[in-house]
Amino acid sequence: MARTLDTMPPTKTEAPTAARPGRRFRQSAGRQHHAGPLTYVLLAVAAFVSLFPLYWNVVAASHTGERVVEAPAPLLPGSRLMDNLSFAWNQVDMGEALINTTVVASLVALSTVMFSTLAGFAFAKLPFRGRGMMLSLVVATMTIPPQLSVIPLYRIITDLGWFDQLQSVVLPSLVAAFGVFFMRQFLVEALPMELVEAARMDGAHSLRIIWHVVFPVARPAMAVLGMLVFVQAWNDFFWPFIALTPDGSPTLQVALAGLGAGNHSVDHAIVLTGALISTVPLLLVFAFLGKHIVGGITAGAVKS
């Protein structure tokens, strides 16, 4: 017995292990962190830098063209805002241009979101031959400059008799490669394949699966893509300037191209007034829909 006790190896006392980083993270995950003064200072600076161009646009639109180009530039609003707004609105048919731009941007955004979601779902969850190669071709089209397609597009719309008509701007932009890739990447992670298979086992056909399963899951990404495409279509100038004319059915950017032109110079105050008119609808859209879009992004970013 004594020999057994003597030959037993001494037990090692384990040193207290330090808290692991993962454990510390889990312990502090439930705590509510408050922003410090430096955070508010940085946010205030970022807000000022972001809002100052819009503020100066309003300032420039309230002065004369001579005062806008003087040095130093004016920093306080003037008294000619309403006069400049009236002149810019009447110099070109701004009302028709706003309606045309709203129609074009809405149709392009709706069609891009719809077709991109369908194509993204197919590339993400439907197995078919050549899926990887076709997705690579779609992504490769993003590297082609849009200027290379101007001549073929112009030949097509003139042969169809669509020159100076809105469909010449809408139809070439019904779907975008970026939208397909964006929705595919979102649905790969956000849509479980088990959910699609369960719907098929319940007897749902493809259209019902898309309407009741894919669209509800993809709603946050669809809202973000719709906003991005709407803003891009609203500000598009290159192709609408070629396909449309200021005297026909112009979009807003085409109408602004002939704004403020005089005999020998350009009235920069009138040009900036037109830019202010074109910016206000986008600000209103984001003011009404921005909260829902941000909420959709947050909802889509949280995993159960």
- The SSE string, one letter per element, is HHHHHHHHHHHHHHH
The major β-sheet equals: none
Structural class: mainly alpha
Low-confidence stretches: 1-5
What proportion of the residues is helical, as a percent range?
55-70%
- Global shape: globular
Tally of strands = 0
Over the alpha carbons, how many angstroms does the gyration radius reach? 29 Å
Count of helical stretches: 15
Roughly what fraction of the amino acids lie in strands? under 5%
Mean pLDDT: 83
The CA-CA distance between the termini, in Å, is 59 Å
Give a verbal description of the structure.
The longest helix has 34 residues, at 268-301. By secondary structure, the chain is mainly α. The protein has helices at residues 2-7, 21-27, 37-61, 65-68, 81-91, 94-125, 131-140, 150-160, 167-170, 177-190, 193-201, 206-235, 238-243, 252-257, 268-301.
Q: What's a quick, concise take on this entry?
A:
Residues 1-5 have low confidence and may be disordered. It contains 15 helices and no strands. The chain has helices at residues 2-7, 21-27, 37-61, 65-68, 81-91, 94-125, 131-140, 150-160, 167-170, 177-190, 193-201, 206-235, 238-243, 252-257, 268-301.
